């Protein structure tokens, strides 16, 4: 999951980029009110909300969704896996990816 490692990298507090947005004063006041209720400033509130939304969007995009027929087939393979072929046994016996 490349996106998860990207998301975890955002926990670094180093601020080396800038983001600006134009909005009307009523929306700004409303968001600022919500930020105050959460005990943070406008920037922290907006960035936190945007990061959480981005994480949810990426997680949903990476999720594998199966219809009922495919789900049943997937579960059948998990519950009753096919016998390992000689080639698979050879592959799994290798020590590193470089040998593969």
Task: Report on the architecture of this protein.
This protein is 63% helix and 0% strand. The chain contains five helices and no strands. The chain has helices at 2-9, 25-38, 42-62, 68-79, 86-93. It starts with a helix and ends in a 7-residue tail after the last helix.
Index terms:
mainly alpha, 100 residues, elongated
State the total count of DSSP E strands. 0
> What structural category arises from helix and sheet content?
mainly alpha
Distance linking N and C termini: 22 Å
* Share of helix, binned: 55-70%
> How would you sum up the global shape?
elongated
Radius of gyration: 23 Å
Report the total helices.
5
Percent of residues in beta strands: under 5%
Mean pLDDT: 87
- What is the string of SSEs from the N terminus onward? HHHHH
Topology overview:
Blueprint: H1 2-9, H2 25-38, H3 42-62, H4 68-79, H5 86-93
């Amino acid at each position: 999951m490349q996106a998860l490692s990207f998301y975890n990298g955002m926990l670094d507090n180093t601020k080396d980029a800038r983001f600006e947005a134009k909005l009307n004063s009523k929306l700004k006041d409303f968001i600022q009110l919500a930020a105050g209720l959460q005990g943070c400033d406008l920037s922290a509130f907006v960035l936190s909300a945007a990061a959480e939304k981005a994480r949810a969007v990426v997680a949903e995009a990476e999720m594998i969704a199966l219809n009922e027929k495919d789900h049943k087939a997937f579960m059948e393979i998990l519950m009753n896996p096919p016998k390992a072929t000689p080639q698979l046994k050879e592959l799994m016996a290798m020590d590193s990816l470089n040998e593969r």
